[in-house]
Amino acid sequence: MNTLVISTSSFDTDNNPPLQHLQKSGMSIVTNPHRRKLAEDEIIALLQGGAIGLIAGIEPLTRRVFEAAPQLRVISRCGAGLDSVDLAAAKQHGITVLNTPEAPAQAVAELTLAYILTLLRQISTIDTAVRNGEWPRTQGRLLAAQTVGVIGLGHIGRRVARLCQAFEATVIAHDPFVQQAPDGITLMPLPQLLASADIVTLHVPYSTELHHLLDAKAFAAMKPEAIVINAARGGLVDEAALATALTTDTIAAAALDVFEQEPYHGPLTACHNTILTSHIGSLARESRQRMEIEAAENLLQGLRQNGLI
Hints:
Elements: E1 3-6, H1 17-24, E2 28-31, H2 40-47, E3 51-56, H3 63-68, E4 74-77, H4 87-92, E5 96-98, H5 105-120, H6 123-131, E6 147-151, H7 155-166, E7 170-174, E8 185-187, H8 190-196, E9 199-202, H9 216-221, E10 227-230, H10 239-247, E11 253-256, E12 274-276, H11 285-305
Parallel strand pairs: 1-2, 1-3, 3-4, 4-5, 6-7, 6-9, 7-8, 9-10, 10-11, 11-12
């Protein structure tokens, strides 16, 4: 019997028509028993037994993984980013790699907006104070009065820009792959964006070239009242440098949903002017359902095109 592995930490297998079609065609499904991001050895173990298809999370899919899974032919990423996949090695091993770039975009964009509003109005800090018996009269800031710098104008970045424009914020952007910006958005070089923005939000895929795109030098170039948002990928931000920037008032606040090592236990947990969440960007019910169905449909089509079903 052919085997399909689902390595994401959670997946609704009961309400997914393409997946049910694969099961009816005789495919056995193996899910992630750890219910968290898998390490390299763990995904290798999960693929043992002749898996031909994988609905992938963000575990490292390396050359070593592919060499240990010689029957694997289709990888369908449940999500947009492909930085966890060695695409060159996949091609050499004859593995088709697919993703779902559109499905999680709205969920991540709305989460980004939630971070921005929460930090501007200091909602979390005030909530904690009230629960501690205090009654602070804290003055926040209007999104309408801010300049939002969007780094990366892909599926998510464009949505974030539109949401911020709906609040009458000024939107500037940096994306070397975009020649013509959407209406009302000013494209500019990264150093100019960092110096101009009140809010800097990342929406680019991770690559070695973009490792620690926001580092100590970048934070020093920002306004003292700047807010940094990373709901894209861990590794884009130098987390130690960010913690230093926050504790020395180099910048005002930050919100991160992604980290270099997850689960995260680093120095940012001691910074009061941060929001830290557990990689929940796509975990809105409607978005997640669409993403899982799209990932399963991609896998179904990929297996068909490879003559495996």
